[in-house]
Amino acid sequence: MAEKRESIRIKDSQSRRVLDSAARRRRQRKALEALEADNFQDDPHADLRMSKKAPKFEETIDTGPQVGRKKKKRRSDIFKERFRKNFAALLEEEQMMTGDLPGYQTACVPPSHFPERHFCSVCGYPCKFHTFPSNYTCVQCGSRYCSVRCLGTHQDTRCLKWTA
Amino acid sequence: MQKHKVKLAHSLKRKALLQEINGLEKKAKVTNKASSSLEDDANGRKKKSVPNCVIKAKTVRNRIFIGDQIEDCKDLSGLYYLLAFQKGYLINWEIERQVWDYIFGKSYLDVDFDDTSIIITEPYFNFPSIQEAVSEILFEDYQFHSVFRCNSGFLTQSKYYNECKNSSELCCLVIDSGYSFTHVTPYYLDKKIKQGIKRINVGGKILTNHLKEIVSYRQLMVMDETYVMNQVKEDVCFVSLDFFKDMEIAKKHSTANTIVRDYVLPDYTHIKRGHIRDPEDAGTKPTGSEQIIRLNNERFSVPEVLFHPSDIGIQEMGLAETVVHSISCTPEEMHPHLYNNIVVTGGNGLLPGFKERLYNDVRAMAPCELDVRVTCSDNPVNYPWQGGVLMSEHSDFNKQLVTKAEYEEYGYNLCMERFDV
Q1: What is the pLDDT of residue A4?
Q2: Distance from C-alpha of B340 to C-alpha of B205, rounded to nearest angstrom
Q3: Which residues in B16-40 are b (16+ Cβ under 10 Å) and which e?
């Protein structure tokens, strides 16, 4: 019963919740991680089922120059546990070994000394050509925009559409 | 003629093979040291770079494409990349082995391992266990006669000093802007100054992905068209010399806007490769079924990320600021030399305007009494490779190598001593 009586306005206000700064940072980190990705789509061959009964024609299978016994032998040798490390493990290992010496971590450049420049998240133009220091931000998600028109596009297409 | 070639091949004591391991853009480069033209003739193939990846195509389901086999693929839409490298470091050996097996194998280079030296480059601060794995696999698996490992900057500086008219240059600052990241490295003679090595986590991959993202949001969904959009980036993007002025031009309409370009996307039936539409037809309706995207401020705001990573929220210094920061980490006596000898390598150096913009920005930040000079060869991607060729022709080359016999005698420790990675 209680749910039924809830007004549309309350529901509406909930969908327009304002993200706090932590959530905004999280969303931005997600967006940056997406920029690091090698592929957007899923593996197109992931759903391939190799039937054992299907005859294997020589020319349809891509075989490198050396297959067979020799390669198999090397494989087992090569993919030893210690070569199978992900990036995080390698980084940790390096830190243990080098300590304060120059390494992967110290090589990364610090944040810029110059102030950040702001661009409209919709059309990509700098807000008011940086003559006007304060530009507009979306109340809900904090994205920048330059005009009412871009705000409309932003709210219709993007604002809180990809969930954090 | 044929006879002559064979004789030459025999007279080579050992062939050196140069392989660059790095991301995708930085392709694995392979050649025969002593005479690359010999190799070209013998195989009827020009020396070229091979993409260091394994590719799966949406339409071709019965095979995968290793390295440059992708040239056999007719439909390049929706390619799926398998990369051995993560953030620029070799993580997935299974994939890298496929690529190496293909390159060294009979169908490509047909390497005679017992009689071949290999020069292999690695990223700066390559993780110790990756270094060990590289050595072990090259010696024990492929059984190369001898190996030389180094950073690509090492080859760059040797090529650079060699090219300089007055060979009195003592220092150079190598900028390597590749697929996964951009490194700025000061060299004193052939020694890198470790505390000055700086990395910006922006490379060609981020630029392509950023272009994909904004085009998908503003115009047409191209998120899964990495290959096509990379070509778009290479065809239309440029580094702006006056960012805000170009922004204003991009905002103008019709003929006043000299920046906007229409790009015809390939459909792989009639149009095999995307291209810029003739500016004459701009404004007219496209004929037939061609798909067109319009690139306006995208053309220069994408490469701008290299100079201002904070534009897309990466809280790091831009390239010019990094140059100044890196130089400030070196002894003061070196500063004039480093500012005067900035070398650009890596695929992003191909972006039009890159060199000029870098010069302008560094000039603006550097002390006014110091001269700034930026050089970038016509082929910044192959520049370190050319340095490798030079090095392999040098008489001292044999002393720098570690041979298989030495490796078996002294083990990996000798590699750690001799190679400065």
Answers
A1: 63
A2: 30
A3: bbbbbbbbbbbbbbbbbbbbbebbe
Q: Is the pLDDT of residue B11 over 60?
A: no
In angstroms, the Cα distances linking B262 to A90, A128, B206, B275, B290 are 45, 26, 23, 9, 11
Q: What angle do CA B66, B72, B74 make, to 5 degrees?
A: 120
- Summarize pLDDT for A90-100 with one digit per residue, the tens: 888 888 887 77
| B197 inside 8 A of chain A by CB | yes
Q: A85 to chain B: which residues are within 8 Å by CB?
A: 91, 129
**SS3 at position B16:** strand
Q: Which residues of A touch B103 (CB under 8 A)?
A: none
E strand or H helix at B276: strand B275-276
Which residues lie closer than 8 Å to B418 by C-beta, 6 or more apart? B400, B402
Do B247 and A125 make contact, defined as CB atoms within 8 angstroms?
A: yes
- Residue B66: in which H helix or E strand, if any? strand B65-66
Contact A57/B at CB under 8 A: no
Partners of B89 in the β-ladder? B86
Burial class (CB in 10 A: 0-12, 13-18, 19+), B126: buried
Task: Name residues 106-125 of chain A within 8 A of B (Cβ).
Answer: 107-114, 116-117, 119, 122-125
For the stretch B299-315, pLDDT in tens is 999 999 999 999 998 99
Identify which of B156, B159, B153 has the alpha carbon closest to the alpha carbon of residue B185: B153
The domain defined by B15-152+381-418 carries CATH number 1.10.3720.10: no
Name B246's bridge partners: none
- Give me the amino acid identity at B70: I
Tell the CATH topology of B204-303: Actin; Chain A, domain 4 (3.90.640)
What residue in B sits closest to A158 (Cα-Cα)?
B217
Sequence-distant (6+) residues with CB within 8 A of B415 are B131, B135, B147, B149, B402, B407
Domain boundary assignment for chain B: 15-152+381-418, 155-202+310-376, 204-303
A73 touching chain B per CB within 8 A: no
Which amino acid is present at B95? I
Which region among B19-28, B303-312, B319-328 has the lowest average model confidence (pLDDT)?
Answer: B19-28
**Is it true that B155-202+310-376 and B204-303 share their CATH fold?**
no
Q: For residues A22 and A20, what is the distance between their CA atoms, to the nearest angstrom?
A: 6
How high is the mean pLDDT of chain A? 74
Beta carbons of A60 and B130 less than 8 Å apart: no
Q: Does B213 touch chain A (CB under 8 A)?
A: yes
Give CA B291 to chain center in angstroms.
30
Fold classification of B155-202+310-376 is: Nucleotidyltransferase; domain 5 (3.30.420)
Higher pLDDT: B286 or B169? It is: B169
Digit-coded pLDDT (tens) for B113-159: 888 888 888 999 999 888 988 898 889 888 889 999 999 899 999 99
How high is the ipTM of this complex? 0.76
A131 lies within 8 A of chain B by CB = no
**SS3 of A40-102:** CCCCCCCCCCCCCCCCCCHHHCCCCCCCCHHHHHHHHHHCCHHHCCCHHHHHHHHHHHHCCCC
